[in-house]
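PT: before anyone asks, these are the final sequences, not the draft ones from last week. 1055 residues across everything. Please model them as a single complex and drop the result in this thread when it's through.
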Amino acid sequence: MFDIAKYYEAKTLEDALSYLKANPDVRVIAGGTDVLLRIREGKISNAHLMGISFIFALKTITEDEQGNLHIGPMMTFTAIEENEIILKHIPILAEAVGAIGGPQIRNVATIGGNVCNGATSADSASSLFCLNARLKIQTADSSRLVPISEFYVGPGKVILQPGELVTDIIIEKKDYDGYTGTYKKFAQRSAMDIATIGCAVILKHDGKTISDIRIGLGVAAPTPIRCTDAENIGRGMTISPENIDAMAKATITNMRARDSWRGSKTFREHLVYELTKRAVKKLVGLPEEE
Amino acid sequence: MSFNVIGKPVQRGDAAAKVTGRALYTRDMKMPGMLYAKILRAEIAHGYVKSYDISEAEKLPGVVKIVLPKDVKANPWPSAGHPYSLNPAHQDIADRQILNEKIRLFGDEIGAVVAKDELTAEKAVKLIKVAYEALPFVLDAEEAMKEGAPILHGDETNILRHTDIKHGKEELSTAFSKCDYILEQEFDVTPVQHAHLENHIAYAYVDPEDRLTIVTSTQIAHIVRRVVAHALNLPFGKVRVIQPYIGGGFGNKQDVVIEPMAAMLSLACNGRPVMVDLTREEVFYGSRTRHGIRFKFKTGVSKDGRLLAKSMVSIGNNGAYASHGHSIVAKGGTNFSRTYPAELATEWNGYTVYTNTATAGAMRGYGIPQVNFAVECHMDDLADDIGMDPIEFKQKNVMKLGFVDPVSGIEIKSCGLPECIEKGKAYIDWDNKRKEYLNQKGDKRKGVGFALFSYATAVWPFSMELAGARLTMNQDGSLQLTVGAAEIGQGSDTVFAQMAAEVMGVPFSMVNVVRGTDTDIHPYDPGAYASRQTYVAGQAVRQAAESVRDQVCARAAKKYDIDVKDVEIRDAKIYRVSAGRLLCTLEQLAMESFYEKDESSTIASEKSANVKSNALAFGVCVTEVEVDVKTGKVNILKICNIHDSGTIINPILASGQVEGGMSMSCGLALSEGLKYDPKTGQMLTDNLLDYKLPTVLDTPHFDVDFVEPYDVTGPFGNKALGEPPAVPPAAAIRNAIKHATGVRVFATPMNPQSLFEAFREAGLN
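LR: through. Structure below.
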């Protein structure tokens, strides 16, 4: 049994935003795969929830005239995995969200929920970091655009204020056009597991040189991060196993992994090095393993 | 032996009921006026409750009763699902209270709330304020044995029991002096949990005629009745225990975990039905676990690979309470003594030790998965060290047909092990792969590994074996079979029906099994444990069926005035053998037994079989793995268990048992393990996210094979099958990792973190 005191089902985006404004204590529930767990664990009691699952405007994926992509935050992972626009332009995101939980979770959990939950382990986040995603945040009276790199402020903490709702996830054409990408999730299990390390890499190359590269990591720091030091080494780099190895080694400088009973700092650092190396090799057509 | 129904892959009788959701489990059976309980659990690992403040909790609307230790009047009780011993020296340790004043583990039961619904009970539990007096605690068994360690029970020692067994022609030290090579090693098997689908759940009520009734998900209904009756001072006949369909047990329900609590709470609420439904977290820390055991070996061999002397020290972490006590570590000791007999001397020292961790109890394999992992790794390493092929070395030293176990006196009367080994070698292409995978370099390396086992089917002669079955003939010649043995998903009801049909000469479909266990209805049987049911309860079923068959034949002989030896039942028809002539159908005879005016007497039999034998099952596991030395990930490419369990009663169910057991052992080997916070003693892995039970995607395809020597001691030539599949895979996987990488691992689980560290130490990453 869940300790839910009150539940409101928003009908439209406007309805949701005005209910949020009128009820500062309300908590938004999307797919519920995180919120319901917290209620069960007793971390939320007498919950006042607002459901937004019936707001159609938040459940679309579109490509605008400039070729920018708009991902509705209420898109479920299954819907993203199967979406033609995603598969055509940013298949890395389909790969990443396909690594989450199991089919039942992916059928209800949403990308907006995954991001707003603020977990460093969110499988969608590292890819969105690579893609320089921006989040549209609305209140009943205002709207702002925030780069995803500024959205996370700490473990489980994001910049959302009471009354605010993420209403769009935007990826500009310049951030995906011409890139190939891959997401390497390392977890103990092949399903139903949280990442020990999540490593997303997108890059542009001509077979000889990598002209641009972006590396996004999960569980390598209290929030998802980008490996700017390694990216700087990789940008313009001649493709060779030795160069890739040196670049992958540089990921460590941006990391802030820590020892926990779930995995040691040394192991996580080693995994980032190994996964980055394998991801880049895969993307440039070299054998992944030695 | 040729059989008509036995050995056939009939579909299990309850399959459709279960997959369509029509089978009702404990949670499905709500009663009018039912109340729900939640347990108040300690938030320290060791100490006392100084005071409770229940004032806030009492005020919560919907709270019916708050119960604290001082309110409970009950005798201390033993929780183990063992048959009672009439000898007080052999009785299980009665160290349980329904609610505890002294706290021995983080999560110990220190109070309970009964309310109109679970949410209210849960909220009320949170409103109870508890002040503690904390004592130092100890989590590691070897630490707990040291002088000065915090003591859990009494004030002398944490050692529950110590066994010292020695046998052989010579003193151990003399024997070691004659060895050409001696290897000393230490292994650690981390505790794991059963993770059955259905959590522990029970409800209790007082029926309209003042009898206490408990509906519970248990493997041992009759034992629950005995324990609850003792604990609450009730006459046996006034306690009724009902076990409906059950969602798995694997030994965790071979223990009286929550039934006394449910019964006590119902009595505290004027006999209203009270349900206790544990959460997954509570099951992890508050039910039972497999024992974590540390093994220390010293083993000596001759140059040509003969095992001359061996010693083992095993230290089992029993957690906070006795539960099954020393039996599990002891069973491992007897297995060690016999599987590879040493020519000159054998010594074993076993300790079972209390610590402030979750209580360890029975789990599929009962101590053998642990000792087998350690012994099969140790023997493999010994073979490597003296330059011998591990299979050749093991085969040379393992016990053979006719061997008499020096400790139990059990004689091996059937042994298909040599055939299992040959099949295993062929399956994995052993000789070629052992050479092919030498000296690999890359990130991913392959290896093959092997382990064998022996396994005692039942508990005789260490404990008694008794099982009951009743077979009643209906008017149409069909039969109702009522067995005390518990169907817990393993398929026992189906194989019992096959046995009855076989003896009776009727098709399988004519035997109806009276499902579940109800102590008012089902004859006495201590329950589902060991690998005893087809072996022990099978004898009772066989005897009851033989009696019913004989009654039918006698009735037919009288009716047709022929010699009873000349009567035979085939396909539910009665024949005169000498004339090759059909006499009548079974239905006709059954109808007459009910309704014939002068000679009616219904046909039925109830038998209680006291089985005084035991048989050893054997088998091997062979596997090929691929190891990523950079990330510590292990991928099982091929794995096969080959079993000698004597006659296979039902090949589909048997394969299912083997696949399930292999999956448990793969989890133990590669990912599962319970962890505790060293600062607080709280279990860290009390949920299915942090406890890495393998998912279906982590599960390789399991190949299964059988060899079927007929064992004369089994009712149909059959031996243990329930537990053995969970025994050998872990060691085979470890030995394959060693073959792939050259790195010897000494602890489970061999998960990425631990393998990464081992490979780093070896310079592989």
